[in-house]
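User: For my dataset I need records formatted as: sequence, then structure tokens, nothing else. Please produce one.
Assistant:
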Amino acid sequence: MSGNDHKLTQHKASDGEAKRSAASLLPESGVDHAGASPLLFYPPSKQVNLMNPVVLAYVGDAVFELLVRQYLVAGPNHKSHILHKDATAIVSAKAQRAMLERLQPLLTEEEAEIVRRGRNSKSGAPPKNADPADYRQATALECLCGHLFYQGKTERLQELFAAGLPD
């Protein structure tokens, strides 16, 4: 039985058997996650400042996508095809690069350093439809989103997102 099978078995246990919460299935990391986002169900095993920028960008991509979707759903048009079209326009590498350029003057020194780390990370080949420079900048923005998310700075994340939107 693999480790994952064991976890599934734990969740299917009858009332008479010991059930374990999802948190107890995770290894103890010893990392303090005080002040983390309330959506942080599975905290990272490392301190956020020690995490690989590509990993922060991986999580930041999902965080950014969620921000975009919430922003669009808060608007007046809820037709799914229009929501999808509008979201795609905002999450493109080119649009993320433009957003990051608008945000640069607003970033703290720490945030600017996270952006620099994300931009300089080796994240692999960009998609065929993306300019490599745009892709690096988009990765940098996503790295910042992941970093702020893991630090529980959701208000700052929302503030930067709102400031970065085009007029």
